[in-house]
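A favour, since you know our structure tokens better than I do. Would you make up a two-line entry for one protein for me to read? Write everything out right here, beneath this request.
=====
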Amino acid sequence: MMERIKRRWLFVLLMAFVLLMQACSSSAPDDKSDNSTSSEATTTEPAKASTEQKAADRGEAVPDSGESAADRSEEPTSSGASTSGQQGNLPDAGTLTAGEWDDNAKWSTWNKLMASNEGRENRPYWQFYDFRRLEVKVKAGGSPVADAAVVLTSKDGQQAWAARTNAAGVAYVFPTLFVEQGGDRKYTLSVTAGQQKKQFENVELKQGRSMEVSFDDAMRPSSLVDLMLVVDTTGSMSDELRYLEAELKDVVTRVSEQNNGQLDIRVSSNFYRDEHDDYVVRPFPFTRDVDKAVDQIADQEAFGGGDFPEAVELALSNAIEEHEWSKEALARLMFVVLDAPPHHEPQIMKKLQKLTAKAAEQGIRIIPIASSGVDIATEHLMRYIAVSTGGTYVFLTDHSGVGGDHLKPAVGEYEVRALNDLMVDVITRYCRS
């Protein structure tokens, strides 16, 4: 019975993604960052603390709520889930409930989490050491520039970090993210928007620094939007797969129908398990045929796995390096639905660093959707990757009654929403300035 419930859950989420692709034409709130000072990472031996020790520290990093250290976050407010009619034997879209937390927009809260015991344990464990950030805002003719290339170069001429601006004209640069100790204090910053380019020497990496770069000639943004879904289909995801299919179909369909022809949307559905399963990664190329993407989602079943970690890095490698992402785009979004971390091995940690930096350079925003079974360490890794690629963190909640218990995230107060509605809003925000 539990296996059937799990499969239905994931099916709904997948269906919601498919319908989400039509929301980019509606208005969205601006993404604002408080630019408060960031705490420089301390380094420890990469040893994993016990789950009990981590859970005891969760409340330390929730400064906005003022609750005790035993609590991970304030109780969320609930807005109620919207539903759409069933198709065939699919569950209703709008069944799954979720919350969202954008760490780049809540930067002072993020810095306090990174400075807490929990942050000091998990940063070296995953080898994401130093989250000092340079925020770069790019405008041309007074309007935000999407997809401008932002590159920070160290004094020895090596590229320290590269990113692309989002639709609001903002890029986040993390030159010392993978530097265990030290790092340059001054860099060369270059920003390229179409045929226009500016370069700045001796840019200091001050904590919480924000720079504005302006060009004279206005630019017309691209209409291309790449949406990718990467889903863990191992046996532990069976409680959610069936529901995910309904949710994601709803999402992609809505985004496709609501853009009024203003956006050129491509979708790619990808699935992964673990090594020694019947497949490790099952990829599908980008397509403008939403029905084809829906059929690919509907064909999936949860099976395999066995141990807790899965082949996350292989799925990300395929998604980032082996798909034809648009060279110019308004937005490139990758939703990663998972309930388990990658295997913790030295070569895999290095691979994750490389993939994170490459995604940031290509302007691919990685947006995890944490499912039941995610532990504290996995939450940290997913948020690290989301922050450094300019993505946001989405997490399923217990309010739907579907699946197992969901980890209470170390965030401030958040609103519980229907997952499909939340995903539509997330995509809209990344498609609008």
Observations:
- The chain has two domains: 2-32+78-127+221-431, 134-215.
